[in-house]
Each structure stands twice: as structure tokens, then as C-alpha cells.
Amino acid sequence: MAHLTNEEINQIQKSADIVNIISSYVDLVKKGKNYFGICPFHDDHTPSMSVSKEKGIYSCFTCHSTGNVFKFIQDYENVSFLEAVKIVAEKSGIELNVDFRETSKYESMYDAYDLAIKYYQNNLKSSLGHEAHKYLNDRGLSDEIIDEFEIGYASKEIDTLTKLFLAKGYDEETLINSGLINRGKSLYDLFRDRVTFPIHNPNGKAVAFSARIYEKRDNEAKYINTKETPIFKKGEILFNFHRARNEAKKLKKIILVEGQMDAIRVYASGVKNVVATMGTALTDNHVNMLKRLNVDIVLCFDADSAGEKATVAAGELLQKYGINPLVVRLSQEKDPDEYIIKHGVEAYQNLIDHPLTYFEFKKSIFSKNKNLTKAEDISKYINSVLEELKKSNDEILIESTINGLSKEFNISKSTLMKKFDSLDVKPITTKQKETVKLKKKRISLENDLCEKMIFYMISDTKYIRLYQQELSYLPISKYEEIAADILAFYIKYNYINMADFITEERDSKYLNDILEILDDNINLELIDNDFVGFIEKIKEIHKKNKIDDEVTDIKKSTDINEQLKMLNDLIKLKKDV
User: Fold this and answer.
1) Residue 445: enclosing H or E segment and its boundaries?
2) φ, ψ for residue 51 (rounded to 5)?
3) N or C: which end of the chain has fewer CB within 10 A?
4) Mean pLDDT, to the nearest integer, of 312-338?
């Protein structure tokens, strides 16, 4: 069967009635030109999601979920893009004789992982995997959980999986690039005599394995993992995310643990909103995945000092994204797996239900190894707490913490406030303040202008033509690339449409930026003179930036002749402004 082309996908989107389709999931009420309903992507109690039939997009003014009909189905049904296209086509009465498998140059890699999973599972259920199966059962994993997580066993033989792949017609380079097979004097299996755990991407496709020894062996690592490949990047994968996502949205909470065995143990105990990092520190990509869930994040790392450091690092990163995580620290047991085995799931659930705030967790660290009856240790502790408190904009937290410190250590509030106010404050001259203020204002103005121009261009082809004729660049590279994509869409199809453009950009690294621009400007009135004004302001900013660069270059130069030449260029630039 044939695959869908972009043109066919765009046609399905045009034929679909976004209001009818979304109203099959959410009750919508018409108000003016748009329809409104309870947003399903956050804890909504009043209708905050707007659906525009005319533009073919939906937007929530509370959680800022925005997109076309495919994006809604993807997020609501937790399916891949092409699966969402299929659902929209079915709901719209459109018959399609096409192959809905994900079209990808890495399709053979995905297929290889699916075959490897089946092979390892069969091994585990055979006499070859008897000891490995017993090990898993002894660890408290039922056969139902073993099947759900597709856990298997790699046999002791050096190349049985390799031979199976070759017999099925797989290309050697594909197998090596996938990380499943290695090449020495001949091809051989990566995993041997180990329990295998498949790792899936957010869409539920297997992309890697982690393999564990099931009996003590000298000089062998407990775990070995598939190498990073084109379809597997540790910093972009959270183990069990595809299973945990819906449960996390339902419970408004997701638990982050350090290892997949911890995640499986917690999940098997009935606490299914759990994910694990893949032997790496939390990354920006991980945070963006978690942030989109719009739920509380509970950090539950190992109880040792390494786990404590990992908790601090993850907490600091999350705070940079405006997220204040919750923290669970286990008592004597090393990790959640051991804790649940020893104390049971109810005790673990109780910890999850009563976590520390990240600030409380940091306070507990500051008090470690200190004698809080000694003045010197009290001073160190209070200074650390105040420094951490300085990161917060929560006035109630600041006041209540200072009140608490005052009562606990019998120190006046005025002394504590004086110290608090003085922390991390560097003297800045009036001129420096004005420079910083102007720079922030300029950056904010540039962002605003770029976003408005992008919105205008997505809304009407005449603004694309004006951009192309009068400007053809933007001062911020991210927006310039988006503008180039809009122009490319227009050249290719000779029209522009918000929903179609979103569909075209579904794999773009700037998709979230585009959706935010649409969400922030959805009610913006399009006025021709305003767009012309945006162009003139950007030209003006561009010239002023060039002047600033020239001034900087003149100051850096030590060659008098070069300085004179640059000075002449600067004078010409200033005349043009």
C-alpha cells in the first residue's frame, strides 16, 4: 500500500471539521465566532479552550495548549502523528487505502527491535531462560508484568540473534548501526546471557535495550545498554514515559526515579505514574517532556550521596524552567526497588503522598553534619537557607521562612532581612543600570516584533510577499528560520494556512515556538500599516545593532588605520539612521 504524502495529509486536515471532531471528546459552546470548552490538557474547571473553525486550530488561554486537529488527537489519544491522521480521517468519513506505519528511513531499525523483543521473550519462556525467569519471579515480578514490559532473555550463544536477523534478510550495516549487533572477526550479538529490558520512545516504539546480569559475576557490569543510535539518545528518552503519561495526567503527578528496575518495581506495585532516566542526568529535553504534562514532578532518587547530588542537580534544572519539584528521600534502603520489597507499596505510596518541597529538601541538606547549638554552624546554616530563599519570588515563603528562622534561633527579623537583602547584590552604577535596562527592552522589543511578523505571515500570503520584498531577514535566528519555513511553504503550495503549516512543521524543532506564537497572538487584528511599521522598526534595530558592533570593534582594535576606516564606516551608518 502507498504512504500518505504531505499534500494528502493537508487535504485530510482541510476536509475535517475541527469543531465536530473536538466536540466528540469535549463539550463545546459557541460564543461569537469561536467555540469554547473545558480544556482536557490541564485541571480546568471553567471553559478555557477556544476552537476556531475558520482557522482550524484550538488554543487554551490557561495551559497554552495550541495546535490543529491532528495535534489535539495526538495529545488526547496519546498516539503518533500518523495514527492521529488515521483517526481524523475515520471521524471525517474519509476512506484511505494507505499504509499507516511511520514512514522513516530508520523503519528497518524499528522492525529489528520488534523482532529482537520477540526473540528475547521466546528465550525467557523456554528452557534456555529458566534461571533468568526464576530470578525475575524471585524479585517479585509477576509473569503479567514481565509480559507487559516485554522483558526477555539473551541466550549464552554468541550469534543466535545475528543468524536470525540475517536469515530474515536484514542488512549488516543496519544491524550494526542499530546497536544490536557488533562486528569482530565476524558478526556477533551484543547481549548474551542477560535479562533484556526494551526501551521505548514517547510514541511507544522500541528503540534500545538495557540488559542485566541475573547472577553475580566477577568483572562484568551489572547493566549494559544499547549504544546511542539515530533513533536512541539517552538525553531524549525517559524509561516508561509512554505508559506513565496518561496515569500522570490523571493523578496530576509524575514520579521520577533513577533506574528502569526501580520504575518497573514501582509500576508493578500499582503506582503507574513513574518514569526513569536512562543512566544519565536529567536533561533539558527530559524537562520539556515532563513540563508538557502540566503535573507535579516528584523526585525519588537513590538514598545514597550520589542520589542526593542527582536530586539537587535535577531540582536546580527544573527550577530554571519555572518548576518547583517535590522530593521523596528514602530512609535506609538504597532505592525504591529495595524500599518496596522491604516495606511494601503502602509505605512507599505514603511517602509519595507526603513529599518534601524542594526548598524543604535543600534545608535538610544544609543542616547535615552541623551542630545547630553552635553559633558558627547556625551562621553557616542560616546563610545557606537565605541564599536558597533568595532564588524564590514567593513573598509568603520568604516571610514565613524568615519568621521561622527568627523564632528557632532567637535572631531578630531585622537582622535576617538585612542579611537577606544584601545577598548576591553587586553594586551597579546608574549608567550600568540604564544599559542593562535598555538591552532587556531591546531584546524584548525584537522578540515581540519577530513574533508578530511570524503571526501575520502565517495568517495571509500578502505579508509573506511583503517580507520577501522589503526585509527577508529577522534579527533573531530562531524566528528567521521559522520565516524561511513559511516562505518555503508558500513557494511550494502557493498559499498559507495556519493548520496546514502546523502540519507541515510537525517535525520542526521550532514547532512549540510556532504554537506559542499562534497562542499569544490568536486575537491579534491584522492591519497592513502595522506590518509595514514592524518592517521599518526591524530595519532600524538592524542599523543600530550594526552601529553598536562597529563601536565595539573600534574599541577592540589596536591598529590606528583600521580604527580610522571603521570610524568612517560608523559615521556613514549614523547618517542613515
Assistant:
1) helix 430-459
2) -120, 125
3) N
4) 86
Is residue 488 domain-shared with residue 411, that is, in the same domain? no
User: What are the cell numbers at 48?
Assistant: 478555557
Whole-structure pTM over 0.90, yes or no?
no
Residues 502 and 444 both lie in one domain: yes
Band the pLDDT of 425: cuts 50, 70, 90. Answer: very low
Return the H-helix or E-strand segment holding 406.
helix 395-409
Q: Which residues contact 434 (CB under 8 A, 6 or more apart)?
A: none
Least confident of 160-164, 324-328, 479-483, 514-518: 514-518
Q: Are residues 380 and 275 in the same domain?
A: no
Shared domain for 270 and 307, answered yes or no, is yes
> Are residues 557 and 455 part of one domain?
yes
- Count of CB atoms situated within 10 Å of the CB of 306: 11
Pairing of strands 253-257, 296-299: parallel
CB < 8 Å & 24+ apart, contacts of 239-243: 239/199, 239/263, 239/275, 239/276, 239/277, 239/278, 240/264, 240/267, 240/274, 240/275, 240/276, 241/200, 241/202, 241/275, 241/289, 242/78, 242/200, 242/201, 242/202, 242/203, 242/204, 243/267, 243/272
pLDDT band at 293 (very low <50, low <70, confident <90, very high): confident
Q: CB–CB of 472/535 below 8 Å?
A: no
How many angstroms separate the CA atoms of 78 and 203, rounded?
Answer: 8
Whether pLDDT at 442 is above 60: no
- Is there a contact between 257 and 276 (Cβ–Cβ < 8 Å)? yes
Residue 555 sits in the same domain as residue 504: yes
Q: Which residue range forms the structural domain that includes residue 175?
A: 107-232
Cell 500578502 -> residue: 462
Total tally of structural domains belonging to the chain: 5
Q: Which of 293, 296, 194, 282 is nearest to 241 (CA)?
A: 293
